[in-house]
Design a protein that fits this description.
- The chain has two domains: 176 residues, Rossmann fold; 66 residues, no CATH class.
- An eight-stranded mixed β-sheet has the order 5-6-7-4-8-9-3-10. It has a two-stranded antiparallel ribbon with strand order 1-2.
- The protein contains ten helices and 14 strands.
- By secondary structure, the protein is of the alpha/beta class.
């Protein structure tokens, strides 16, 4: 109807401008090369993505927001959809998209970079939404409303001296100069959007998680396809089925349940079997900051040994030492 009726197209534009979820679920496409027969598909949001997108819209121009995530949850796309919605429908907005390397921000014909995703989204919009744009390296300009999106790599002085509606910092846990970036961006915008999987605790992203910043959590258990068949086990190794509907027509005896007390599913178990080291699962799926840094002994094995073989301490306290570092006294705490 919009193709043949300009007024109808204008009405749809207004609906998109008022409701970002209507805009995304009706007109936005995503790209997934793993779907070899049809890699270009409509982006239909899951409930956890709806919540995240609306929180993002509320944050832009107002306050910082952090997303800690499992991989392959659509978090980066959700952030870019929110930024692009402002770019398309709000006047005189200015955004900065940042990643650890410039090629991850804008590289010609590279679907992994941020600007390629934004270009892909806009190019697949219908005529009554797609605006005329000026597009240069690390820059795009909406000629209808004056809004801009720029890109940069995460040097310590990124964006210093400028002013932005929001700054998007993708995979921030991998940024080596993270604390310098925090200083450089704090005064340039009221809204910094942090997005990352964990990468240990010795980085600026982890430090931000320890503040009062508003947090989103994209955990794999929120994804209906990944959490299908969700189960866990108790301290006595008793199996607890959470997604009973999935197992309703399947023989539980044919499945090798792993009873480690964690939330698991058939999809999760498959990913664990494909991983070379438990650190991969801690980093990519579990949002486990301690486990995502390499440890010589697996934390899960250590916890199991403690439960199985340890006994309560006879005494708890500390030793006092003299100047030659010889112990002189044991001070008991109990």
């Amino acid at each position: 109807m919009a193709k043949n009726d300009r007024q109808y197209g204008q009405a749809l534009w207004k609906m998109c401008a008022e409701d970002p979820l209507f805009f995304i679920n009706t007109f936005v496409y995503t790209y997934d090369p793993r779907k070899s027969t049809c890699p270009v598909v409509p982006f239909i949001t899951y409930p956890f993505q709806d919540i995240a997108i609306l929180e993002l819209i509320n944050a832009i121009g107002d306050h910082d927001l952090l997303a800690e995530k499992s991989r392959d949850m659509g978090a980066t796309w959700c952030f870019l959809y929110g930024i692009t919605w402002f770019f398309l429908f709000k006047n005189m907005q200015t955004f900065l998209a940042v990643s650890r390397k410039e090629d991850l921000v804008d590289k010609t014909q590279d679907p992994d970079c941020l600007f390629w995703k934004i270009d892909f989204m806009i190019e697949n919009l219908p005529w009554f939404i797609k605006p005329p744009r000026t597009r240069n390296k690390l820059h795009m300009f909406n000629e209808n409303n004056g809004s801009t999106i720029d890109g940069s790599s995460t040097t310590g002085d990124v964006g210093r001296g400028g002013r932005r509606t929001a700054v998007f910092l993708d995979e921030f846990a991998s940024v080596e100069e993270g604390h310098a970036v925090l200083k450089a961006t704090r005064d340039m915008t009221t809204c910094r959007l942090f997005n990352s999987t964990p990468k240990g605790t010795n980085n600026a992203f982890y430090d931000m998680t320890q503040t009062d910043i508003l947090k989103l959590r994209f955990h794999w258990t929120e994804h209906p396809e990944k959490s299908a068949g969700l189960y866990t086990s108790g301290d006595d190794d008793q199996l607890e089925i959470i997604d009973s509907e999935y197992w309703r027509f399947k023989k539980k005896s044919d499945f090798d349940f792993i009873r480690d007390g964690n939330l698991r599913s058939p999809w999760y178990d498959l990913q664990c079997s494909r991983a070379a080291h438990p650190m991969e699962i801690a980093q990519e799926l579990d949002i486990d900051y301690l486990g995502s840094a390499f440890q010589f002994f697996d934390p899960g094995i250590i916890d199991g040994c403690i439960k199985k073989d340890s006994r309560p301490a006879f005494h708890i306290g500390e030793l006092s030492f003299d100047e030659s570092l010889e112990p002189t006294e044991f001070i008991s705490f109990m």
